[in-house]
Amino acid sequence: MDKIQIENLTLTYKDADKSFTALENLNLSVKEGEFVCIIGPSGCGKSSLLSVVEGLNKATAGKVLIDGNEVTGPGKERGIVFQHYSLFPWLTTVGNVVFAMKQSKVKGKTKELEGRAKLYLTKVGLGDSFEKYPAELSGGMQQRVAIARVLAANASIFLMDEPFGAIDPKNRQELQELVAHLAREENKTVLFVTHDIEEAILLADRIVFIDKHTIQEDVPVGIAKPRTKASLIDNEEYRTLSNHLMRLFYRNVSENIGDEVYL
User: Fold this and answer.
1) How far apart are CA 183 and CA 157, in angstroms?
2) For the segment 60-86, what is each residue's pLDDT rounded down to a tens digit?
3) Of 49, 45, 10, which Cα lies nearest the Cα of 30?
4) What is the rounded CA–CA span in Å between residue 229 and residue 242?
5) H helix and E strand count, the chain
6) CB within 10 Å: which end of the chain, N or C, has fewer?
7) Distance, CA of 49 to CA of 242 (rounded, Å)
């Protein structure tokens, strides 16, 4: 059985005067432990797809199944990491992680939960920052707290919406490799939205290209894991795949320009 099954998914946003279809008849299956990156032009529906899988938006038609059960709202088996860290400024790093665990009904007394929080904060490289507040942390450190929060809450599915878009290049590379390592170590199923083709190839088992409200291509990444940026530089398969994905983006741009000219 697939971990995530998306069947004929359509999502239309409506207000009093107009409607907009973000996703239309989209189908996708994701196996347990699989890392799937979702790419595509701005406004193609990538974030909308995550919002339906998370249960924050209800599908207009079709459905999402997690372990064979239809998604009707948020669930503790799903954890989401946004580009902006959404930490509570009045709580320490440990406090932020403990709060997430309590919301997800992780069992244990407060001391036990604090111990679990410290374990995962250490895993993400924040073993010396247990009592710091978000204002005392860099952007990269705050994102590490957000990742620890999802891990400690025992989510089996990571939904990541351009989580490193606001991070400087050095921290971005460290976080990419950290997430790839933790996903393998903890056997997490990951849906990861990104605009960055290199990031997608670095992380993914498969890359899904969305355009015109649905999946246009589903591309396997056959490069052996673990991968690093250094290992990809001279990899011929990487260059071929990168060029193919770039052509998908350029084709989209050309078609859109053509539409504007002939309209």
Assistant:
1) 10
2) 999 999 999 999 999 989 999 887 778
3) 49
4) 13
5) 8, 10
6) C
7) 24
